[in-house]
Amino acid sequence: MSDVAERLLARRRNLAFILALGASLLILLISTNSLAGVPQRVGLTVLSFFQKGFDAVGSFASGTLTNVSELRDLRARYRDLVDRMEEYRNLERSLTDLKRENERLRSQLGYLDESRFRAASARIIAKDPGNLYSTFVVDKGLADGLRKNLPVVAYQDGSEGLVGKVLEVGRSSSIISPIFDASAHISARLDRTRYEGLVSGGGSSDVPLTLKYVKKRAKDEIQYGDLVVTSGYQSLYPRDVIIGRVVRILATDYQTSLDIDVEPVLDFERLEYVFIVFPDDRTED
Amino acid sequence: MFSLYSPTIGRRIEVLKTILVATATAIGCSLLQSTWLHSIAVFSVIPDLALLVVVFVAFQNVRTEGISVGFLSGLVQDFISSAPLGFNAFVRTVVSFGFNLISGNFYIDRILMPVLFGASATLVKALATTVIAVAFPAFVHGYDFLDRILWIETAYNAVLAPVLFFILGLLRPLFVTARNRG
């Protein structure tokens, strides 16, 4: 047999073997149902590989885009939240201030309602620009019915105390001369013992007032802490308004009267609101 | 021929401008003193910035600008003070006159001379106040030279003078006329 013939025979033989083997395997698979779902599985496995690939690329792209967008939104929301927080902080501060002012005004209003005088409330807006005078300026004037020499009182820490008098009146502001001014002189008396005298200012709120012309025989009766009040006698100040408390008693041999240091009942450094009294319209019983 | 733009009129306008600006600055300082400066008071004593402005203008200008500023600013301060009208006008006129006399005779450095000027201006003010208190005892009370108020104010003015002079020096063309700027 020639070589060509042998090769042709070998080729036919191999082909027949592959076909027969394939057919027998197929018959086996069919008869045993072993191939049920295999094509789908194989197809799924192969195709899902590509699907995953495509999905990964798509997810990456959309995820990146989403992140960028979310980041932008987050930044904007963060800025907005920060602004809002700042706004709320400011509101909280204002609220705290308003609450404090409300309490102060309520206490002042409470004083006004219970006071025996008709009075106009005023706020201190400025003080004397020099160091020689101790006056201060309030925000009420002629337009509010104020006039010169009206007495001024204040309410602080539950106590009513004498502030001073109106010195000058403008249209919408007035100058008040306080009781500690060097030119202030107030007819007064000791509340408990009823001895009378004259209270003079020391020139500064740091310096005590001086109660003069109190009879020397009162020395044994006066106690530290005794209240000093206005006497109301021939005075522009209404009677029984507290001026201060006795802190020192000085009696010298060559004098016939006592010099008594009086500490004002009001803390003038903390004074914000005052009441200008109209003594002609008292509401007392 | 008369001209609105003659050098004389130009100088007068400049002098007027200097006086107005300096007076307005001193008045502004007075308003500050009556409001904000009380929160930095030492033993209830506040500095007198308006006085220091007057001193600066009086010393830097050889002519009458300083005296005019002292008078006008003092008069305006009297309106917002319980001092009798004319009290501060008098005091500042005296102070400005004093510093005007020595104008041009000293080289003013950045620190030492302003400190001396601030302190001496306060003492001159106290002396002028005492003179008025003697003349009008029922209406005016002067400084007590033994009281701490005067000495605290002197120290306060001495400390702030260099700072204020420096600031005013930066705006020198507003407070010093061209002739005096040299």
The first-to-last residue Cα distance of chain A is 155 Å
Mean pLDDT metric of chain A: 82
Average pLDDT of chain B, rounded to a whole number, is: 88
Q: Give me the Rg of chain B, rounded.
A: 17 Å
Separation, N- and C-terminal Cα atoms of chain B: 29 Å
Percent helix of chain B? 55-70%
Tally of DSSP β-strands of chain A = 12
Low-confidence stretches of chain A: none
Structural class assignment of chain A: alpha+beta
What proportion of the residues of chain A is helical, as a percent range? 25-40%
- If you compute it from the alpha carbons, what radius of gyration of chain A comes out, rounded to the nearest whole angstrom? 50 Å
Tell me the major beta sheet of chain B: none
Largest sheet of chain A, in brief, is: 6 strands, antiparallel, barrel
Portion in strands of chain B: under 5%
Strand proportion of chain A, as a percent range, falls in 25-35%
Low-confidence region ranges of chain B: none
Largest interface: A-B, 23 and 26 residues
Counted by DSSP, the helix tally of chain A is: 2
Kindly report the oligomeric state of this protein: heterodimer
Task: Kindly name the structural category of chain B.
Answer: mainly alpha
Word description of this protein:
The complex is a heterodimer of chains A (285) and B (182). Chain A is of the alpha+beta class and 285 residues long. Chain A is 38% helix and 28% strand. Chain A has helices at residues 3-32, 38-114; strands at residues 118-127, 136-138, 151-156, 159-169, 174-178, 185-190, 196-200, 209-215, 227-230, 242-250, 257-264, 273-278. A 6-stranded antiparallel β-barrel of chain A has the order 1-2-5-4-3-12. Chain A has a 6-stranded antiparallel beta barrel with strand order 6-7-8-11-10-9. In chain A, a hairpin with a 4-residue loop joins strand 4 and strand 5. Chain A is rod-shaped, with a radius of gyration of 50 Å. Chain A starts with a helix and ends in a 7-residue tail after the last strand. The model of chain A has no long low-confidence stretch (mean pLDDT 82). Chain B is mostly helical. In chain B, helix 2 crosses helix 6. The radius of gyration of chain B is 17 Å and the shape is globular. Chain B is built from 8 helices and no strands. Chain B has helices at 7-34, 49-60, 65-79, 87-101, 112-135, 148-170, 172-175, 178-181. Helices cover 69% and strands 0% of the residues of chain B. The chains are: A alpha+beta (285), B mainly alpha (182). At the A-B interface, strand 1 of A face helix 1 of B.
